Amino acid sequence: MSTITYDSYLALDQLLAAQQPISDHHDEPLFIVMHQTKELWMRQTIHELGLAIDLIRADRLVESYKTLARISRIQAVMTLSWDVLQTMTATDYLRFRRVLGTSSGFQSDQFRTVEVMMGFRDGPRHGPATRAAAERPSLWDEANAAAHRAGLPIPAEALARDWPAPYAPDGRVEDAWREVYREEAKWWPLYQLAEKLVDLDEAFAVWRHKHVMTVSRIIGHKQGTGGTGVAYLEATLPKRAFPELWSLRTAL
């Protein structure tokens, strides 16, 4: 009989020993658990994004819907978790903020990797995972390639671009995807893919907005521990991973 137990399977000894507060303030463990939990969810998101990209590359679009929906649900859970952190007041945070030094979520290699895999390629690349992901086509790049293989007139510039470079929205890409929305029965697998991508983009945008509100509520417009703050976070709010899927709606 297997000797695997609940504790050993989940490596609970290591997991529960990973919270090491530096101060004696009551709210620091919450701060640590919240950020560690987000890193675990981001690890799963990277895992799921890898599968979604592989499925789309293989033209297994219907199979990708489940994975994309799962990522959106993970993002929703991460967004709701800000509500827990908001139970920590500005005064509570100031009592232990000094022990954080220059550490910041801005430095998260996993968060940057998620961004890069989705299609955001204009941010910093702190670690090897982010840099490696930037050398490969993003989720949006693969969706455009799949649309091209299905018969849509995706321009060559979107199919063989410099992958690490920021993606520039293209009116011809918008035109192609607009055709999908105008004749959704004809292009049903791509139509459903587009809607799953919009779901994901919206979930990510809502997470960013809740992040801004949480930071604003706790530290106001002070500079964050990593040198950023509300002003920087607010500047990221308009960003979209799949820009043509949003802009095409105006012209429908």
Automatic annotation (TrEMBL):
Which InterPro entries does the entry mention? Trp/Indoleamine_2_3_dOase-like, Trp_2_3_dOase
Cross-referenced Gene3D superfamilies? 1.20.58.480
Q: Does the keyword field hold DNA repair?
A: no
State how the cofactor is bound. Binds 1 heme group per subunit.
What residues does heme bind to?
211
Per UniProt, where does substrate bind?
A: 93, 97, 225
Query: Does the UniProt entry include the keyword Metal-binding?
Result: yes
EC number(s) stated in the UniProt entry for this protein: 1.13.11.11
What cofactors does the UniProt entry give for this protein?
heme
Alphabetized, the UniProt keywords read: Dioxygenase, Heme, Iron, Metal-binding, Oxidoreductase, Tryptophan catabolism
Q: What pathway is it annotated to?
A: Amino-acid degradation; L-tryptophan degradation via kynurenine pathway; L-kynurenine from L-tryptophan: step 1/2
Superkingdom per UniProt: Bacteria
Top EC class, one word? oxidoreductase
* Reactions that this protein is recorded to catalyse: L-tryptophan + O2 = N-formyl-L-kynurenine
Supply the PANTHER family for this chain.
Answer: TRYPTOPHAN 2,3-DIOXYGENASE (PTHR10138)
Question: HAMAP family this protein is in?
Answer: T23O (MF_01972)
Described by its record, this protein's role is as follows: Heme-dependent dioxygenase that catalyzes the oxidative cleavage of the L-tryptophan (L-Trp) pyrrole ring and converts L-tryptophan to N-formyl-L-kynurenine. Catalyzes the oxidative cleavage of the indole moiety.
This protein's assembly is summarised as: Homotetramer.
What's the protein here called?
Tryptophan 2,3-dioxygenase
Q: Which organism is it from?
A: Sphingomonas qomolangmaensis
